[in-house]
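Predict both folds.
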Amino acid sequence: MQDIRNFSIIAHIDHGKSTLADRLIMRTGVCDTRTFKDQMLDNMDIERERGITIKSQAITLPYTARDGKTYTLNLIDTPGHVDFTYEVSRSLASCEGVLLLIDAAQGVQAQTLANLYLAMEHDLEIIPVINKIDLPSADVDRVLEQIDSELGLDPASHLKCSAKDGTGIDEILEAIVERIPPPVGEADEPLAALIFDAFYDAYRGTVINCRIFHGEVKAGDTIRFMSNNSIYRVEEVGRFLLSRQKRDKLSAGEVGYIIAGVKTVSSVSIGDTITLDERPCERPLPGFRKVKPVVFASIYPISSDDYEDLSDALDKYKLNDAAFIYEKDSSIALGQGFRCGFLGLLHLDIVQERLEREFGLNIILSVPSVRYRFTLKDGTVLYVDNPAHYPGPMAVVKSEEPYIRASMMLPDRYLGAVMTLCIEKRGVNSNLRYPSPGRAELSYEMPLAEVIFDFYDRFKSVTQGYGSFDYDLIDYRPSNLVLLDILVNGEKVDALSQIVHRDRARARGVQACERLKEEIPRQMYKIAIQGAIGGEIISRSTISAFRKDVTAKCYGGDITRKRKLLEKQKEGKKRMKMVGSVSIPQSAFLAVLRSDTDS
């Protein structure tokens, strides 16, 4: 165990985490130049295209240090986005130290701070690494000041590197060996292993990634998951190189995988403790909690014939993503579909893109919503994430919505625009400080519902890309919530209903009506598009009718001749309106949904 080092790389998005991992893999000889490709630990096309890590990975790196000894370095890679904070915390719980990566040009960002606090909670050795020193805009002195003032770390402990051209990689590897402590644990104690990730293999079932804290596990052992007491027989254990490498056993301090005939990833809870069935440990490892979705949306196939294909695709997708949940749903306007739960907007975006790309589906997403809490007159507490299940204003005593604490780092010249945006989004209890000259750290408490629509895009726009944003859920707070219905020709379109704050209802209603007016084709009669709260109409657009000029043949005579023809036309259109039904094209739904997320 003295020769093992378990570490992770944490950073803000796009600070070079995957590139540094690539260089460490190349330097330790796990991969040669012929088989190398960028972002070695990112398996999905979306990860490569967007330059983000969605699924955390682990790899074992054998490294011969300057003292002549060969060490086993276990790199546990982490996702870089705020949606996956819990997964990051479980990866960090499996380590003894971290490399905190900071971009030499951008400096300390919001998620740099958030990840630093996570590492400090787990009492890890933190090695600050300044990356991208080869950039013309790199300002190492400014970053050193930020390490001291904003992170509270010793600037003398920093390392400099350029993961792109390989500068400083040897120094990082030596620092990992010298500064990160070896793991502690007893091989003869009962087995206690922490699950930090799991993925699905089509031939072997679920592969469980775990860190062994005490005891040892080998093929043939009977293991138990402590969160649900399910029991499995171990088929294979091993460690990760570029591919899985089978071993006789995994002992205390090691990181590796267990294959035990687990059918689905959903059966494995990230953060759970594995122990032996016949000799269990006394208590589970700390920090476990069930991951709960915070953003909800319904998915419908564009063609109703594709419903079965969508159902099969979601079953297969669920095998690989335990955080994704779904159940059957239906809409009068859009037909059969599924109500889905996501960890955040990025998670929603990834699920949508993977369903379209990997399964060849054309789908529509309903307006994303959050889970609201309603207290009814009979004392019942109801959680509602689907507008179709809104209990009705007469039955509700108190309505509440989830709040977040948003932390933003930005150049101070954009402060006014960002504060205006936060106040517009109902932000309260602001806190402002200047960690260094020219930089501001701003925090607001805001409703999650306001953030999931267009906040992130607008924040990036007003800060011209220089701002960084991070958030965490805090609690539920009382709010004046109403159900906004959209009526087309007097008929309610259930797929466009939303639960909104009363102050926002009119703006949302006007926006939806205007978008539908642009998309719905004209008929032979007028079509009224209305936004309504209960029986009160709060917004309206009218699509004018096609109209034939029936008075064209009148070249003279009394005005009553023209009036008579116009009245006859009016009666005809009235009759047509009573029997006619308006078909809403799919593009109209997409336009309304886009108006909320991409405006």
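Second protein follows, with its predicted structure tokens after the sequence.
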Amino acid sequence: MDISKIRNFCIIAHVDHGKTTLSDRLLEKTQTVELRQMKDQLLDAMDLEREKGITIKSHPVSMNYTAADGNTYLLNLIDTPGHVDFSYEVSRSLASCEGCCLLVDASQGVEAQTVANATLAMQQDLTIVPVINKVDLPSAQVEHVSKQIEDVLAIPADDAVRASGKTGIGIIEILEAVVKRVPAPRWSDYPFPRALIFDSKFDTYKGVISYVRVFSGTFKAGDTIELMANGVKSQIKEVGIFSPKMRPADTLEPGMVGYIVTNIRDVSDVKIGDTITHANKKAQEPVPGFKEVRPMVFSGIYPLDTTDYEKLKAGIAKLAINDAALTYVPETSVALGFGFRCGFLGLLHMEIIQERLRREYDLNILSTYPSVIYKVYTHGDKLTLVDNPTLMPDAAEIVKMEEPTIRAHIHIPGTSIGDMLSLIQEKRGICDHIETIDEQRVMLCCTLPLNEILVDFNDRMKSITRGYGSMDYELGDYIESDLVKLDILVNGEAVDAFSSIVHTAKAESHGRRLCERLKELLPRQLFKVAIQASVGGKIIARETLGSVGKDVLAKCYGGDITRKRKLLDKQKEGKKRMKQIGKVSIPQDAFIKILKNEG
């Protein structure tokens, strides 16, 4: 294939601005997929993607298009996720392309992830083709959105393509704009073979399948390749392209997007963003931009049935090959048994992984309260990174603690500023400045502790803004904070599954809420049980679970009051002795209800 006739591009946008629907129309117009095989959200292969209406994984597809100039071009499209949790996938997709279509909803306008993704594209020095989508809607404000694109993104909107992924308006114009404006593949004259891994998946029969963009050199079956990040060598078994299903090919040449099947079986060897080169003609430097992904949220995942531990281990290992951002290490809990401490990019990422474990691997799992990585400084300037409350050093040894923050850009209607600022203040955040986007919308630039946005921040933001708010964030600096470890004691014994690290100001309310919830859920014993919240050995909240009543006076019919008193005193002594030696076993469903309620 003549490299000047190849165009590599992707579609970037905010969540639900119509990326996947537009991809469907492009596949139809280029006749890549026959009409009888066509279905909505064709590139979204997972049931979860269809149900939630979001793209989770990048999806490549190669299309042949005969342009107005009479030439036939090979267009390689990579559909990308829009949610902030999957921004690493977007950055890898952008690194594989020379241009992108920036999609903006004609009724919603420029939103948080629109700005974030446009900035990523500019940093990669890509050609940006602005597309105003959903122009067929009655609520479309095309001129207003054009002005937003120029004012907020600083991208000229005169040549923005007006389109509708639903009705097919402007699809030919988009294809022509890609052919004319997006440059031919770059870095093809580099003297050594290089291919960027932008995604990968595990196949039971073939092993690891790497999705690649070839920058220079050719790759074919039988070649011995080397992964530049870790030096792992392997032989290529098969190469091919996506149309949109995998189709074997003889070779992958410079500028092409396709897949490489190797002999690699260890799922941890292949890292997304790594560079593949030939073992006997090794490249000196990798394709720029590779970095290890840093998880931001941690949670314990345990099988409800302890016999499923090996099944869970295999399931997480296979998901980790598909997802470079998922990290996991084994851990044990006195209450929950054997499980894994998993790292995620955010809460949606965590929810998706858990749901995939349940569906794809038929596992019943329980996850603990999500937490972040804290920096704990102890005497002697010793630094400990803590992602699990049970690993926290003794309070007497701690000199100071630091927690991670995020820099958030929150787009909201101007009428919601007051309520939004109250929510930010409640979450211990600071609003650095407010920018006006247009007459109706403003952008709040804030600094917030990452721990505070984990559970309900996004839901409450959507409620306050009646669904019109959107947020994009990036990891900020660590700041010193007054944090403590909150323990829950049941009958004087700490339950590690309920331990958490909280800010001093919120410790009492959080502890009281947990104690009240446990009092409702725990079964009564033959003696009174104290449920306590403790910080550094000091009890800050308490609830008492009443004992099961037994009528010891039933056999005492009449007689002097002293006979009754004697029986009651005897019962009291027995209960006191039972409380000293009695054990309270917490049923599994109480753990599930508490952790689901808290998570």
